[in-house]
Amino acid sequence: MGYLGTYTERPVLDREAKVHSIDLTYRPTDKVRVDTVFISSNIEQGLDETKKSGEAFRFRLTASPRKGRWHDMGIFFFGKELDITDMGYQISNDWLFLGSQNGLKFSDYDESSIFLSNEFEVGYSFESNADLDKSSQSTYLSYKSTFRNTSNIEFTNFYRTPSKDFWITRGSLISPYIKKPKNYGTKLQFMGPSTDFFKYILEVKREKGSQWSFSALGFKTSYMAMADFTPRDNLSLSLMYQHSKEDDWLNWIEDNLLGIYKQKQRTTIASMNWFGGDKHELRMKAQMVAFTARQPGAYLGDATGSLNPIEMVLPPFSLSDLAFQIRYRYEILPLAYLYVVYTKGGRIVELDEEDSLDKLYKRPWNDPQADNFTVKVRYRF
User: Fold this and answer.
1) Which residue, among 76, 92, 89, 153, has the nearest Cα to 118 in the 3D structure?
2) Which residues pair with residue 189 across a beta bridge?
3) How many CB atoms are closer than 10 A to CB 31?
4) What CA–CA distance (Å, rounded) separates 130 from 111?
5) Half-sphere exposure of 105 (CA within 13 A, CB side)
6) 359 φ, ψ to 5°?
7) Element spanning 362, H or E
8) Measured in Å, how far apart are the chain's first and last C-alpha atoms?
9) CA dist., res. 127 & res. 133, Å (int)
């Protein structure tokens, strides 16, 4: 059992925030584990006369009654008035989620079999707002086969009932939710054999919405490829590229005004790690995102959750995002280090129709929001 509490005063906002949390882990046997967290917040802010208090809790039960079988059940609740931003990152509020995952793994294969294991997993979830107004129910079935050469293939299907999205309109009184159609999709992933030098992953998804969250109006098709190289024991390189397109992407603009776009996103992540003996360490990582939204149409949500088209011009837009960092560490003495870190990045949004990947990736590099060079010495006396 543990307790964490924070008390924060922000004189500029005339804000006082108190957050309390209690967590408990209970293991009645080596096959059953229970984790719980309870959080409460109390906020007073004189600048806008805000006074609110809220609660959140998480309950999770995991069980492995026998070899090759597991169950994972969880309940997550975030109240409407919860505000823990003074203590840490808050994922959401006004949200209830119940979910269950159940799996079977078969691994008793002899040496002549091409299989190392086969896994089946089935799950169910229920989602609502904090008033217990149902948003959706969903279920999924997943199959994963691992071969003796260490490659594996995974196949997943999911289905979500027609839903109410209570969160996209940000608490609008005119349109408290937006109705979404039934969602479903398929994911196929293949991981190649793992060797000392090279391994790779290929993935394709065709989905309306996603398996665990984000209901949607239209289909999204996504392709991903990732490769890891280890040319030497002290050097590793990684590269990932993902390309996705979505029809009828719904974007909130203000109050009950929303836009529907044709959306495309391209993401590249590259990294390098190098170790020079016991003293030198060099790491580099870059993440680049190019997001475009085209052919916009304007819609107003109403009290019944319907989207009604209106004659209003919405501009297309392009978003470029960059996060780049190089870190070097040198061990001067045992537990004494020199750190040198260079960070560059930012996000740029333009109301245009630029589609060149090269130009979109370069925008935040040429006009960064952050461009920092840091040197730190840690010395043990």
Assistant:
1) 153
2) 154, 203
3) 12
4) 53
5) 13
6) -70, -40
7) helix 357-366
8) 36
9) 9
Rama region for 65: left / alpha / beta (φ>0; ψ in -120 to 50; rest): alpha
Nearest 5°: the CA angle 98, 99, 102 is 155
- Written as six digits, the tokens of 120 are 């089946």
What's the distance, CA 356 to chain centroid?
26
pTM of the model: 0.87
Mean residue pLDDT of the chain comes to 94
Return the structure tokens found at 143: 């199959």
For residue 351, the 8-state DSSP code is S
Measuring CA to CA, which residue among 37, 20, 34 is closest to residue 71? 34
Strand partners, 321: 289, 347
Confidence of residue 47 (pLDDT cuts 50, 70, 90): confident
Residue type, 27: R
The H-or-E segment that residue 336 falls in is strand 336-350
pLDDT, tens digit (0-9, with 9 covering 90-100), for 14-25: 889 999 999 999
φ, ψ for residue 364, nearest 5 deg: -70, -20
**Nearest alpha-carbon partner for 310 in 324, 296, 323:** 296
State the virtual CA torsion across 138, 219, 361, 375 in degrees, nearest 10.
0
Q: Do residues 166 and 158 lie in contact, with contact meaning Cβ atoms separated by under 8 Å?
A: no
CA distance 8 to 86: 7
Q: Which helix (H) or strand (E) holds 262?
A: strand 257-276
DSSP letters, 156-212, are EEEEE-SEEESSTTTT-SS-S-EEE--EEEEEEEEEPPP-SSEEEEEEEEEEES-SS
Residue 288 C-beta-side C-alpha neighbours within 13 Å = 18
Could you tell me the residue ranges of all domains in the chain?
A: 1-93, 94-378
What angle is formed at CA 38 by the lines to CA 83 and CA 59, rounded to 5 degrees? Answer: 120
- Ramachandran bin of 166, using left for φ above 0, alpha for ψ from -120 to 50, beta for the remaining angles: alpha
d(CA 155, CA 176): 36
Q: Give the whole-angstrom CA distance, residue 347 versus residue 95.
A: 29
